[in-house]
TrEMBL record:
Domain of life from the UniProt record: Bacteria
Organism: Nocardia panacis
InterPro entries assigned to the protein according to its UniProt record, in alphabetical order: NTF2-like_dom_sf, SEC_C_motif, YchJ-like, YchJ-like_M
The protein's name: UPF0225 protein D5S18_01645
Domain YchJ-like middle NTF2-like: 32-126
Family: Belongs to the UPF0225 family.
Entries under Pfam families matching the protein: SEC-C (PF02810), YchJ_M-like (PF17775)
Coiled-coil annotated spans: none
Length: 130
């Protein structure tokens, strides 16, 4: 369970309850592709497979989301965004997600594509390496 008074894992500096918490609970939708990217990072950090599946485009959604029990997400770095605003239908977010495993620290660098499905932002796919 996430402590709602602690800083949100996405790194925006807000409390979880005021940042990604309402998105993960379904109380509201992400207003931008970057907000969805941040909330999906948070979902990975708190092991919320249901949210990840719910925010994955139906054409690319996996049957299951598996988590590596050895992996601990440390922080998220947004490199750049293209489009993805409230009035756009598509968007791109390039990010680096830093993590630690038993063998040390590493980084996942990805450029993710987002679109809208039923009016809500969803993750389409990603290209590793930025």
């Amino acid at each position: 369970m996430v402590n709602v008074d602690r800083p949100c894992p996405c790194g925006r500096g807000e409390k979880f309850a005021d940042c990604c918490g309402p998105l993960l609970s379904g109380a509201r939708s992400a207003p931008t592709a970057e907000a969805l990217m941040r909330s999906r990072y948070t979902a990975f950090a708190v092991l919320d497979a249901e949210y990840l599946r719910r925010t994955w485009h139906s054409s690319t959604r996996p049957a299951e989301v598996d988590f590596d029990p050895e992996l601990r997400w440390l922080f998220l770095e947004i490199v750049r965004t293209e489009r993805g605003g409230p009035f756009d239908d598509t968007g791109i977010v390039e990010f680096r997600a830093h993590y630690r495993t038993a063998s040390g620290r590493d980084t996942l660098h990805e450029t993710s594509s987002f679109g809208k499905e039923s009016g809500a932002w969803v993750y389409l796919d990603g290209k590793l390496g930025g």
